[in-house]
Design brief:
With about 625 residues, the protein is an alpha/beta fold. It folds into 3 domains: about 240 residues, Aminohydrolase, N-terminal nucleophile (Ntn) domain (Glutamine Phosphoribosylpyrophosphate, subunit 1, domain 1); about 200 residues, Glucose-6-phosphate isomerase like protein, domain 1 (Rossmann fold); about 140 residues, 3-Layer(aba) Sandwich (Rossmann fold). The protein is built from 18 helices and 24 strands. The strands form 4 sheets. Strands 3-2-4-1-10-9-11-14 form an 8-stranded antiparallel β-sheet, covered by helices on one side. Strands 5-6-7-8-12-13 form a 6-stranded antiparallel β-sheet. Bound molecules: fructose -6-phosphate (F6R).
């Protein structure tokens, strides 16, 4: 939600900032803007719409080159996506420029105060008040970092701020509260960004900032302090992926690349977590085994696709550990006064590690004494920082707004957590764990095989481009897969898409079935739990009898579905609990191709942003 970049060094700040914004555009694409310090003053440009509009404006009216600058790509909250509301925002004298991610909740009263003191605010944003407040404080102390500390102490809400002042031309100052900001440290240069992708082409040496921190960047160093001026809370780390991971690598879209990366992402997430004897070694889960043995309830909190991973995790956790597991939308969690105590293990799943709803849910859980384990893809982000422990998914950077490889790796991580709980609590025998671990190790190859057979799925998707509705059905772990398939289609193809538990259909939604409406059905394995399989085969017959066009995802060798499938998508046989790892992949490909066929922007669907840092 909004991408921010700041730079100080000997390169052209405009070039560095624009290249950084390009990598962060997935965070918001309602407008974009830059400001650079040059010739003793500030120069800038901002434009509504995608970054390309700003690029064109800069070609028509180039800015002077300077080595200090900031930039922003916006997902609008306060004020529509217009040129005037685009960041950076300036004070009345045009000496301070500020960019912002988040929401300043007390902006209305700050704005009124400023107006009384004669400031003229020209935008509808909450951000503009910060530029004016910084200008006032700077005029008294002539120190931008100190001005930022003083201003931050007056702000309520969640924010990342990055600012420059024409009177301190070699300084960029940033601040963060509940919103992402990382520092990149180069040779004689330094960077600030919402995400390391913005500066990974220049340095892999990064600093994560704690809560309520102000950072001052100069060419020769970085200083971190708390909002109160006290010692800083910061941790240096090395980014373990390089610039190629943040590029499309020959694919038309990041989403296609990320779908194709899934076999590796799945294998990488297992790496180093299984010892040669086949037992799990999750040393990074710093919650002692004794505490895990005491756990009486598991609660999973997450949003969107990560929530669907949580729904699937519930089946594995309860089946393998016999510990009750609840799964809750993070945005609802703390408002219903959930029952939590020291014997509750909360699992917070988040690709970005910055989702505000999930962060607030985990804070609430910790306040109630529960232990929180994060399942996260982004090193050093806020959610793992604030959790008792973290199990990182090793998906690499996910740039496309629609989550794909992160989902599969979240599933793998959740299976590992469930098995680990079974191991430490003794509800699973060693050989049972080893058998599941072997099945998990085979999944990477199975996903590879699914990817090799996707051409008919793409063809089918293209043939449905003029449809208005697609329904998705599943049972057991196939139900969250159906929800995920529907979510992907909604966000990418802008179609009415809904996922249902197949058994629930006859309690109402079956009324939606009419002639030729496409219904995707995720069929569980006929082996083992064949009751489940038989029931869904009946459900397919029920909808087909009412005119539905059935698109059946079934495992290789399942012949029972053949007579009822208008289109049959085969996936390799897996144990039922692991089937989501293969059954989700065709649905990702389906949504991506349908979006393309409908002329939609695959990587940047309308109204969305990758990282949702407001509640
Ligand atoms: C859907 C999607 C979103 C995210 C959700 C949570 O494709 O990407 O639904 O899954 O916003 O994001 P994280 O995992 O970053 O907390």
């Amino acid at each position: 939600m909004c991408g921010i970049v700041g730079y100080v060094g000997s390169q052209s700040a405009l070039d560095v900032v624009m290249a950084g914004l390009k990598r962060l555009e997935y965070r918001g694409y309602d407008s974009a803007g830059v400001a650079v310090l040059a010739d003793g003053g500030l120069a800038g440009a901002k434009k509504a719409g995608k970054l390309v509009n700003l690029e064109k404006a800069l070609v028509e009216r180039p800015l002077l080159a300077g080595g200090t600058g900031i930039g922003h790509t916006r997902w609008a909250t306060h004020g529509g996506p217009t040129d005037g509301n685009a960041h950076p925002h300036l004070d009345n004298a045009g000496r301070v420029a500020v960019v912002h991610n988040g929401i300043i909740e007390n902006f209305a009263c700050l704005r009124a105060e400023l107006a009384e003191r004669g400031h003229e605010l020209v935008s509808e944003t909450d951000t503009e008040v910060v530029a004016h407040l910084l200008a006032e404080e700077f005029s008294a102390c002539a120190d931008l970092a100190e001005a930022m500390r003083l201003v931050c102490r007056r702000l309520e809400g969640a924010f990342t701020l990055v600012a420059v002042h024409a009177d301190e031309p070699d300084v960029v100052v940033g601040a963060r509260r509940n919103s992402p900001l990382v520092v990149g440290v180069g040779e004689g240069e330094a960077f600030l960004a919402s995400d390391v992708a913005a500066f990974i082409a220049h340095t892999r040496s990064a600093i994560e900032l704690g809560q309520d921190q102000v950072v001052e960047l100069r060419r020769d160093g970085v200083t971190v302090t708390g909002f109160d001026g006290g010692p800083g809370d910061a941790r240096s780390y090395h980014v373990d992926w390089d610039v190629s991971a943040a590029e499309k690598g020959g694919y038309d879209y990041f989403m296609l690349k990320e779908i194709a990366e899934q076999p590796k992402a799945v294998a990488d997430t297992l790496l180093g977590r299984i010892d040669p004897a086949g037992s799990l070694t999750l040393d990074e889960v710093r919650i002692p085994a004794a505490a895990l043995r005491e756990v009486e309830k598991v609660v999973v909190v997450a949003c969107g696709t990560a929530f669907h991973a949580g729904l699937i995790a519930k089946y594995a956790i309860e089946h393998w550990t016999r510990v009750p597991c609840e799964v809750e939308l993070a945005s609802e969690f703390r408002y219903r006064d959930p029952i939590l105590d020291a014997r509750t293990l909360v699992i917070a799943i988040s690709q970005s590690g910055e989702t505000m709803d999930t962060l607030m849910a985990l804070r609430h859980a910790r306040e109630q004494g529960a232990k929180v384990l994060a399942v996260c893809n982004t090193n050093g982000s806020t959610i793992p920082r604030e959790s008792d422990a973290v199990l990182y998914t090793h998906a690499g950077p996910e740039v496309a707004v629609a989550s794909t490889k992160a989902f599969l790796t979240q599933l793998v991580a959740c299976y590992l957590v469930a098995l680990y709980l079974g191991q430490v609590r003794g509800t699973k025998w060693g050989d049972e764990i080893r058998a599941v671990v072997r099945d998990l190790a085979d999944i990477s190859g199975a996903v590879e095989r699914v990817l090799e057979t996707m051409e008919p799925v793409r063809e089918l998707a293209r043939s449905l481009a003029d449809k208005n509705t697609v329904l998705f059905l599943g049972r057991h772990v196939g139900y969250p897969v159906a929800l995920e398939g529907a979510l992907k289609l909604k966000e990418l193809a802008y179609m009415h898409a809904e996922g249902f538990a197949a058994g629930e259909l006859k309690h109402g939604p079956i009324a939606l079935i009419e002639q030729d409406v496409p219904v995707v059905v995720v069929v569980p394995s006929p082996r083992g739990r064949s009751v489940l399989h038989d029931k869904i085969v009946s459900n397919i017959q029920e909808i087909r009898a009412r005119g539905a066009r059935t698109i059946v995802i079934a495992e290789e060798g399942d012949e029972a579905v053949v007579p009822y499938a208008d289109h049959l998508i085969r996936v390799p046989a897996t144990p039922t609990l692991l089937q989501p790892l293969v059954a989700t992949v065709p649905l990702q490909v389906f949504a991506c191709e349908l979006a393309t066929a409908r002329g939609n922007e695959v990587d940047q669907p309308r109204n969305l942003a990758k990282s949702v840092t407001v509640e």
